[in-house]
């Protein structure tokens, strides 16, 4: 098995682990690119056009983290290869008129990815090089630090604008990042923030003017985290995150049932259908 450190610089890592529920190696590796750098890896989402988090995309991200941790990778920069978009969040088509089996797999895979990334022993930096609504914002918040490209992109948990409700673990991640009051307001309003606004409320840590600067700043940020003794850094992170992680770990089944029942209601299905139409009409 190839290790992250043994592959040639910038070479794409194949996905090697097999699982009955997981997609094939070829389909997963086309969605996420892993590049080895000196002592860390860049994880680029490359599901065109908008890195929507479909079941396959979620599993590809999960699989990447499994491989990286197995290969003793110490840190990652999570970013996007899609111009102008970090991630458009959950693939709305997964929730619209789904089959029960697929909807279950979809949500359960998302729970797994959140538990992996939010609780990762690796140091994690999100390089948010474009829009990051809802699930895209969640992915970024799972990281230890967020660098955002300044410009027209927006970031936030906009679920209520779609007539859906961010689950407790989305809320916990938000509260742990920006605090209770800002979260209460932004969750209700489904606020999407400009990079400047996101910086002001602590949703992102640094802004960068262009991609060249972004890469350098993200690398420097990751190195700062990696200079700290790993166990001390990880256990300190867990002091903040462990309650939320424990909560979902202990209530996964109930959370899954709640999501499935909620997603299948007529009101939610109608709302998602209209939202999909409005996205399609734009083009
Ligand atoms: C009682 C309590 C119980 C609680 C339990 C229930 C909990 C349920 C919670 C579920 C949580 C959901 C979290 C989410 O992530 S929902 C998704 C939210 N995402 C969005 O709102 C983003 C929508 N997209 C956009 O705003 C824009 O696309 C963009 C990201 C700003 C990019 O704009 P741009 O102009 O560049 O691109 P287009 O809009 O033209 O899009 C290109 C094509 O991509 C399709 N698209 C976009 N986003 C999505 C998406 N999220 N899922 C699927 N498809 C998407 C779009 O339709 C275009 O497709 P087309 O080319 O075929 O027209």
TrEMBL record:
<dbReference type="InterPro" id="IPR001753">
    <property type="entry name" value="Enoyl-CoA_hydra/iso"/>
</dbReference>
<keyword id="KW-0496">Mitochondrion</keyword>
<keyword id="KW-0007">Acetylation</keyword>
<keyword id="KW-0276">Fatty acid metabolism</keyword>
<keyword id="KW-0413">Isomerase</keyword>
<protein>
    <recommendedName>
        <fullName>Enoyl-CoA delta isomerase 1, mitochondrial</fullName>
    </recommendedName>
</protein>
<dbReference type="GO" id="GO:0005759">
    <property type="term" value="C:mitochondrial matrix"/>
</dbReference>
<dbReference type="Pfam" id="PF00378">
    <property type="entry name" value="ECH_1"/>
</dbReference>
<keyword id="KW-0443">Lipid metabolism</keyword>
<dbReference type="GO" id="GO:0004165">
    <property type="term" value="F:delta(3)-delta(2)-enoyl-CoA isomerase activity"/>
</dbReference>
<keyword id="KW-0809">Transit peptide</keyword>
<dbReference type="InterPro" id="IPR029045">
    <property type="entry name" value="ClpP/crotonase-like_dom_sf"/>
</dbReference>
<comment type="subunit">
    <text>Homotrimer.</text>
</comment>
<dbReference type="GO" id="GO:0006635">
    <property type="term" value="P:fatty acid beta-oxidation"/>
</dbReference>
<comment type="function">
    <text>Key enzyme of fatty acid beta-oxidation. Able to isomerize both 3-cis (3Z) and 3-trans (3E) double bonds into the 2-trans (2E) form in a range of enoyl-CoA species, with a preference for (3Z)-enoyl-CoAs over (3E)-enoyl-CoAs. The catalytic efficiency of this enzyme is not affected by the fatty acyl chain length.</text>
</comment>
<comment type="pathway">
    <text>Lipid metabolism; fatty acid beta-oxidation.</text>
</comment>
<dbReference type="GO" id="GO:0005739">
    <property type="term" value="C:mitochondrion"/>
</dbReference>
């Amino acid at each position: 098995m190839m290790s992250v450190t043994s592959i040639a610089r910038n070479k794409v890592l194949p996905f090697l682990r097999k699982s009955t529920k997981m997609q094939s190696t070829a389909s997963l590796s086309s969605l996420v690119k892993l590049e080895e750098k000196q002592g860390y890896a860049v994880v680029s989402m490359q599901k065109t056009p908008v890195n929507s988090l479909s079941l396959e995309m979620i599993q590809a991200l999960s699989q990447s983290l499994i491989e990286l941790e197995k290969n003793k990778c110490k840190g990652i920069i999570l970013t996007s290869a899609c111009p102008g978009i970090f991630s458009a969040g959950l693939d709305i088509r997964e929730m619209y008129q789904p089959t029960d089996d697929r909807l279950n797999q979809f949500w359960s895979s998302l729970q797994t990815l959140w538990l992996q990334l939010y609780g990762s022993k690796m140091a994690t930096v999100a390089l948010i090089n474009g829009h990051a609504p809802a699930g895209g914002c969640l992915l970024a918040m799972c990281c230890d630090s967020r660098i955002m490209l300044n410009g027209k992109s927006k970031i936030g948990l906009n679920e209520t604008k779609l007539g859906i409700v961010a689950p407790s673990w989305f809320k916990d991640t938000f509260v742990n990042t920006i605090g209770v009051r800002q979260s209460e307001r932004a969750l209700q309003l489904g606020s999407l923030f400009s990079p400047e606004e996101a910086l002001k409320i602590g949703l992102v840590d640094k802004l960068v003017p262009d991609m060249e600067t972004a890469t350098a700043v993200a690398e420097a940020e990751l190195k700062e985290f990696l200079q700290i003794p790993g166990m001390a850094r990880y256990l300190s992170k867990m002091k903040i995150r462990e309650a939320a992680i424990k909560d979902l770990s202990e209530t996964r089944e109930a959370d899954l049932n709640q999501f499935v029942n909620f997603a299948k209601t007529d009101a939610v299905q109608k709302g998602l259908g209209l939202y999909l139409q409005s996205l399609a009409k734009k083009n």
